[in-house]
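LAB NOTEBOOK - FOLDING QUEUE
OPERATOR: T.R.
BATCH SIZE: 2
PURPOSE: Compare the predicted structure-token outputs for two unrelated chains run back to back under identical settings.
PRIORITY: normal
REVIEWER: second-year student, initials M.K.

ITEM 1
FIELD SEQUENCE / FIELD STRUCTURE:
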Amino acid sequence: MNIAVIITAAGRSERFGGRDKLNEDLGGRALLMRTVELFNKRPEVGCVIVAGPPDKLDDFRFRFGDQLGFHGARIVPGGRVERWETVKNALLEVPGDCTHVAVHDAARPATPVDVIERVFEAAKMFDAVIPAVAVTATIKRVSKEAKQAAEADPIAAAILGDAARPRNLARQVEETIARQRLVEVQTPQVFERGLLIRAYEQKDLSGATDDASLVERLDEAVYVVNGDPRNIKITTPADLHLVRAVLGVRPPQDRPTHKQF
């Protein structure tokens, strides 16, 4: 196999509090570089393509270009709105000699090596392979509408208006979903190159939250191998604390000054 790895890095980090999560420190290296390092030295990987934010691509190149170039990774523009736009753009840059394409979230820098090896090994047998972990929590579907779960202070409401409205919202349970055979999907997801291209040639790609769902729309089989709970996708600052714990690294302010850079 000759695998091209697409790293999706075009997101706006809106749930991360306005900070650039890809530049967060993980043991002295940027989060994005930690993710790229999961793949760049693997013998099956022919190239690494990082799809960055198209509207801020020059800034992205300024911050990461030298480091990514040192690791042999290429930067291409990603999508502006949906994740599938990013992958579709990056697919155009995959070299012709690559037999497979792996897609991985830039915000998953702690993916265990054995997860990558399981996915890559299974991809020798199956054209579409994804990692996932079993859903262990109780899953419920709730109403779209929410109700206030606290009474507003009439005096504060008269002065502040909507700003004084209680933030505690409650949604009604509509159903409890049986969790048997439910799994939570992770990345990297690996596909035979021609299959993934066909998936992205479909006219309607709306609503796709991962690449495997587009392959499923072709009525093609997608196979699941064991993922790992440590394969955390960093979405909020709390996730960053978890990943630092998984990797056994401290935030820069907790390291000696000479080890902060």
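ITEM 2
FIELD SEQUENCE / FIELD STRUCTURE:
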Amino acid sequence: MNTAFDYDLFVIGAGSGGVRAARTSAGYGAKVAIAEQQYLGGTCVNVGCVPKKLFVYASHVQHDIDDAKGFGWETSEARFDWPTLVRNKDTEISRLNGIYKNLLDNAGVALFEGKAVITGPNQITINDQVISAERILIATGGKPFVPEFPGSEHVITSNEAFFLEQLPKKIIIIGGGYIAVEFAGIFSGLGVEVHQFYRGDLFLRGFDQDLREKLAIEMPKQGVQLHFNTDIASIEKSHHGYQVTTAQGDTLDAGLVMYATGRKPLVDQLGLATTGVTLSSKGYIEADAHFQTQEPSIFALGDVTGGTELTPVATAEAMSFASRYFANKDKPMDYSNIASAVFSQPSLASVGLTEQQANEAHPDDLQIFRSEFKHMKHTLSGRDEKTFMKLIVQKSTDRVIGAHMMGADAGEIIQGIAIAIKAGATKADFDSTIGIHPTAAEEFVTMRG
């Protein structure tokens, strides 16, 4: 403890990264405080991965009811009540908020509720109270970004989607990232007519091309109407709700318009001008591999730095930060082979290199294995849905350097594959592994050229 300061560490932002950094640093003996102006748990717990996954589960129920008929179940007409889902979701989020508070309390971390403003390299002001800290960690995350255009004030973002009073009969979703794709599946599964607009040729830029193309075939089967190469020019109120006019001159009415066109870092009004902290051209805080900014006493991690914007990455960065600065153990981050999933319908998951990335890294040294099939469940359910799997292998080493899947439980399956790839497994290792039969996952150990 440096007695020249009130705290050894002051964390701004009680999301996944901030809370983990605070708790772990305190566990190493540091005197720690954390500030949060909105809600404990950050985006993921409150308006991100957790409620979104709950909504994905909800939207799958109608699929299960439809599929049941092929297995001999006589099902009566089901009725969905949106307010019940929202209410139950809110109850669960409140429970998680309480858990986060208990975790901080039990770790001995002081919690300040309010907006923290940096007023110097070692000083924070919150609720008119001036606090000093040897180190300041910024973990404020990001928020949805909506560009300005005629009628942009009429749209909602994913933040508001979790708290709608009622479902619209028809929604237009603008965007081509995973948030847009996931909400398209959610709303469609809950009975809403969904139109997804994207300015590019194909959504999910950065994912493997095969996955992107296969999902574009599958989503319309679930009722999502895809409109690629479509820009929005304006939005006006109409008797249907809103009328969207595209740059191509077409119009479409909907009860709700949702924008999911990216996120921007939460750095406004942080007081960074009182420090040497610098921002990138896109507004992210610039920090080195050890999370240190241009101001030696100020650090940053998680989404606010513009790296890999995933909750487990933020928490891993937090562990690395705490170990380095409060336990004298250097545990640098390894950003290779980070697995990720898109909870689309059907879902996607990937780990390692895409085929395009692999071609650039290892030209003329690849073997690609693909498999596409109807899931066993759908031989009786009658649902027209394909499962797709892909392995990318470096020929010269036989190492599996990429694995990609579209289909039921893709995230659950790829998580296990990620361990193998992280450990350097070869295609021969996959081939010599006995499959679990009958499962879809066994296809990953039976693929042949």
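REVIEWER COMMENT (ITEM 2): The domain at 7-143+264-326 is CATH 3.50.50.60 (FAD/NAD(P)-binding domain).
FOLLOW-UP: none requested
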